[in-house]
Amino acid sequence: MGKPASQVGGSLFIIIAMQLTRITPIAILASFSLGITACNQASSQWQGTWEFANPDTGETVQFILSEDQKVFFLPPEGLGPEPVAYEIPITRVSDATTVPEGMEVIDLAAEIEKSAAQAVSSEGALSVSALMRAQQAYHLEKGEFTDDFEELAVGLPSETDNFAYTMTLGENQIAITGTAKVENAKSYAGLVYLAGEGPQSMSQAILCTTEADSTTTPDLPELDNGEATCGGDSIPLE
Question: 153 — alpha (psi -120 to 50), left (phi > 0) or beta?
């Protein structure tokens, strides 16, 4: 049995209002339009003016659901020289009041949280990877590695809101870590090292990640007969 459309539309309204700062106005319009289209617009439950408020800035946007089944979007004040209202062109196409059988109903808030968590975690992987590539380029030019972020000149800080980064020099190698400071992200450890001897030696690299979200720095990768492997609490990042 499908969920009542009024329940889906109401939940969608609340979710979008809560996530105002995280999705674009187009996404708000599309999601809101879909929710309203699924409902009976003639119902007094939906007629009136609805407002989404940004809890951080207080900025608001409003939707007006008219008695003649039209929907208008009122953008925040100050976005243009004159106040305007945009009519959203939606059309009632069915008397159905339930979601079709077999159709998945996705929790928009959960999807947004999942995407946000993936974005946070990818910050650590991308930053450690960038530092590793910069070390390889630095060694090619200077013949050595460096643990100085400013000297490496890649424009990455040693710490952000989400991660803390370290670079530790060793003999013909440098270890780089990105440790998560938030609960919904993995931590990373990389190693850039020289493989081979003399003029034929070349820098190689390995990047490892914790298998699950973790705010603990992984064990550093180790070298064994010129081959690098991840520490026991991490796996290679493909």
Answer: left
